[in-house]
Amino acid sequence: MIRPASRRGGLALRLGAWAWLALLAVLMRVPAADAAEPGETLQISLLTYGPGELYWERFGHNALLVRDRATGEALVYNYGMFDFAEDDFFWNFVRGRMTYHVGAWPLDEDLPAYVAAGRGAVEQQLDLAPAQRAALRDFLEWNVQPAHARYDYDYFTSNCSTRIRDAIDRALGGALRDRSRGRSRGYTYRMDAVRLLAPQPWLMHVVDLGLGPFADQRLDFWQESFVPMTLASVVRDARIVDDAGATRPLVMAEDTLAENRIAAPPELPADLRWPFLAGGIGIGLALTALARARRYRAARIGFSLAALLVALAAGLGGLVLALLWGFTEHRAAWRNENLLLLDPLCLALLPTWWAAMRPAWRPGRVARMLMLLVLLAAGFAVFSKVLPWFVQQNGHWIALLVPIHVALALALWRQPAPGRAAANIAGDDPEAA
């Protein structure tokens, strides 16, 4: 009796096992209704940080935040990484061959640093389809790998914001580009650079002087998204089309993670033409007054030192602009029309202005010709503004520097030439004793 019972029990076990295997096969072949689609648990957001107080923070910053609800992980992907300690960093900066890279780390390690610096933080949750979220997350994971993390940096066309813009547009199949191309508020690279650097006037003026006509092209919203705050606005206003043909906002929710405790930059750059014209006329009149009072030793020394300072600043400035154009990859500095105002020829006039300290100063023919060339170049800078090929917005620098060049030229030409009797000789000096 034992054997038959055992046979019946073994048969039952085998039949049960086969039944479970058959059921499992059916379950594997028919997908469950509630199975998670790739990207379903992901949430991708654009993080925008306000401008900081350091010069490289003035343009603001942004990053992409990828949250995974299944794991609780929140990673920030940052395209603004650079290293001052990198080999030849400053030399590459001078040549315009900067290299940046992308990094990733947890949100709770990234956000506190910006909050502590007083910089605001805004999160915009993007209403992407699950497949788009997965594709964007996969692209970011690929991009952060050491073999793909580095990229050639450009202030205006390839920076932390444009890289994020391109990544979002990639996930949308070009929809963000299509909806921001051709639409403009009339801004230029120069306008954005000058207004964002306004809290540091010295840096603002240096950058403004160094930007050529490339910076004065009118930008559409796609190009102007090199500014993180502008990209946030573009994303906020963007609408996308779903598979059914309906449109919906790209941003499904927007949250302020931290308030900005640093004063916001102005919306428009200041109009400096009238202040600069007043300054140029004032300096020109002061130089003229000192030149007319050369019979006094203090006036001679004051005029000579002032002329030396102007010539040195203009000459070295022009030399830098010429080097940026001819020997670097700073495309935004090429063909700089300020070379007509900051003339390297001014360096050749330094001995002339040094000699102006002497009571019997008599400039030679070479000095007069050099000064004439400097003045002609400055005069052409004024005339060029009516020509369609000279589009650089440098009217304020013309207003400042042309009166100064005119004053120096008049002071030089009023002096007697060599071989002629000099009015101001040592015996005529009231202070010579």
Describe, in plain words, how this protein is organized in 3D.
With 433 residues, this protein is α+β, with helices and mostly antiparallel strands. The chain folds into 3 domains: 1-30; 42-258, endopeptidase fold (from Nostoc punctiforme); 273-428. It has helices at 2-29, 89-95, 107-116, 130-143, 160-171, 175-180, 189-196, 201-210, 221-224, 228-237, 273-292, 297-327, 350-355, 365-383, 395-413; strands spanning 42-49, 61-68, 73-81, 99-106, 121-126, 150-152, 239-241, 247-249, 251-258. The strands form 2 sheets. A 7-stranded antiparallel β-sheet has the order 6-4-3-2-1-5-9. Strands 7-8 form a two-stranded antiparallel ribbon. A hairpin with a 4-residue loop joins β2 and β3. The radius of gyration is 34 Å and the shape is elongated. The model is unreliable at 1-7, 30-34 and 421-433 (pLDDT under 50).
